[in-house]
């Protein structure tokens, strides 16, 4: 067996910090952890093969959160000094139009990510705090930035270009970027393996469904279209995000409801989607209400599933041939009813749902019949492993 190459994967959110210690060669995870509610009284949860340790913590910032995580690693294992870290890999949400691959973080790269903050004001600042803290905590260990948008840099011009004035596109970098790229890359490659094909021979539609959700058309291992756009707001119906709406709606509401741009943006991002239609952004609660006959829950489910089927149909045309549909993310991996709702409506593509396989089975499994023209699979995503392997690919001495 090849010698392990351990990577600490850091995912810094606005009020949380997740970390995972993973061997990028074998895929083995030695520890996972999360520090929640940064900026006030919070909670740390650290898990290894030996069990889970939880404690209350108060972390004023991401530096303190990373220090709390490192202390948990030192006390409960594994000891990072003994392992010998190969790299620290960071999830960065927005890489703009230029970052098409993972990069080693130096001062110039850090400054470039700072310049991209206007494109992702809710995400990139937190990602930057995580990078800054890790550079201070692990000064001798290479830091690698892996961008959510990078996988979608292969979109053709006709797919990423908005028909808007040239100054918007040229001066303000307005275009489709797409997100969840690390997940889409991992799941599309894994789906090709399940079909016993190389990624270059396989066309896959990946549905990454969670509180945030996106669809991606992957042709021969390359993203050619995706549902999220300039921001993660465009596309599918999500937990609190609206997805696609008429662009004129903002101006209309400004006229009739005195809604300014900030309030409009906040409403579409945090008070729309399933929450607006059913009063909850939690799909499990929505499905319980739906079973009890709740009309709002039924409408929310129908709108969400219809939008999914519409995107699958559009991407089938864009790809020309579909070898598989892959469901991933918390909803994609766990919701029997969402998968059934999507696949039952795809008979025009020759999709035949296997109801028994969809209802129960291994976490990774096929959920269509042997006669189905297009295979549909449940493929649990592993973004942390994908980030760790990206570190191997970009650093000298990496074996991936």
UniProtKB/TrEMBL annotation:
Catalyzed chemical reaction(s): acetate + ATP = acetyl phosphate + ADP
Q: Annotated Gene Ontology MF terms? A: acetate kinase activity; ATP binding; magnesium ion binding
Binding residues for Mg(2+), per the UniProt record?
Answer: 11, 383
Family of the protein in this entry: Belongs to the acetokinase family.
Q: Which SUPFAM superfamilies match?
A: Actin-like ATPase domain
Is the Zinc-finger keyword given for this protein?
A: no
Which amino acid positions bind ATP, per UniProt? 18, 208-212, 282-284, 330-334
Residue ranges crossing the lipid bilayer per the database entry: none
Query: Which keywords label this protein?
Result: ATP-binding, Cytoplasm, Kinase, Magnesium, Metal-binding, Nucleotide-binding, Transferase
Q: Where does substrate bind?
A: 91
Question: What is the protein's given name?
Answer: Acetate kinase
Instruction: Please name the pathway.
Output: Metabolic intermediate biosynthesis; acetyl-CoA biosynthesis; acetyl-CoA from acetate: step 1/2
Record NCBIfam families: ackA (TIGR00016)
Report the co-factor binding details: Mg(2+). Can also accept Mn(2+).
Q: Which organism is it from?
A: Pedococcus sp. KACC 23699
What is this protein for, i.e. what is its function? Answer: Catalyzes the formation of acetyl phosphate from acetate and ATP. Can also catalyze the reverse reaction.
Task: Spell out the subcellular localization from the entry.
Answer: Cytoplasm
Q: Which first-to-last residue range defines the signal peptide?
A: none
* One GO process term, biological-process aspect: acetyl-CoA biosynthetic process
Q: Keyword Kinase: yes or no?
A: yes
Q: What cellular component terms from Gene Ontology apply here?
A: cytoplasm
Question: Can you tell me which residues form the catalytic site?
Answer: 148
């Amino acid at each position: 067996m090849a010698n392990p190459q351990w990577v600490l994967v850091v995912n810094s959110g606005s009020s949380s910090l997740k970390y995972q210690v993973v061997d990028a060669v074998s895929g083995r995870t030695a520890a996972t952890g999360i520090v929640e509610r940064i900026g006030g009284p919070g909670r740390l949860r650290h898990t290894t093969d030996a069990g889970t340790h939880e404690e209350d913590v108060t972390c004023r910032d991401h530096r303190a959160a990373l220090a709390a995580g490192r202390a948990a690693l030192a006390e409960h294992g594994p000891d990072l000094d003994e392992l010998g870290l190969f790299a620290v890999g960071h999830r960065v949400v927005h890489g703009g139009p230029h970052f098409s691959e993972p990069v080693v973080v130096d001062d110039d790269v850090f400054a470039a990510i700072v310049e991209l903050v206007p494109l992702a004001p809710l995400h990139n600042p937190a990602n930057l705090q995580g990078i800054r803290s890790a550079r201070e905590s692990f000064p001798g260990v290479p830091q690698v930035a892996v961008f959510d948008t990078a996988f979608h840099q292969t979109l053709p011009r006709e797919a990423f270009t908005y028909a808007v004035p040239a100054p918007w596109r040229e001066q303000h970098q307005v275009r489709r970027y797409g997100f969840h790229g690390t997940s889409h890359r991992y799941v599309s490659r894994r789906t090709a393996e399940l079909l016993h094909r190389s990624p270059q021979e396989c066309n896959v539609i990946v549905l990454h469904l969670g509180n945030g959700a996106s669809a991606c058309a992957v042709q021969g291992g390359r993203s050619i279209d995706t549902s999220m756009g300039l921001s993660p707001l465009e596309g599918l119906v999500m937990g609190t995000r609206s997805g696609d709406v008429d662009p004129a709606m903002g101006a209309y509401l400004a006229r009739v409801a005195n809604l300014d741009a900030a309030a409009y943006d906040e409403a579409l991002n945090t008070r729309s989607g399933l929450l607006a239609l059913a009063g909850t952004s939690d799909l499990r609660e929505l499905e319980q209400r739906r079973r009890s006959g709740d009309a709002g829950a039924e409408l929310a489910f129908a709108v969400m599933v219809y939008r999914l089927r519409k995107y699958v149909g559009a991407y089938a045309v864009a790809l020309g041939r579909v070898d598989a549909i892959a469901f991933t993310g918390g909803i994609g991996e766990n919701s029997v009813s969402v998968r059934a709702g999507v696949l039952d409506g795809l008979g025009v593509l020759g999709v035949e749902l296997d109801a028994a396989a969809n209802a129960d089975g291994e976490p990774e499994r096929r959920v269509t019949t042997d006669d189905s023209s297009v295979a549909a699979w449940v493929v649990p995503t592993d973004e942390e492993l994908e980030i760790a392997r990206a570190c191997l690919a970009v650093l000298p001495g990496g074996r991936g």
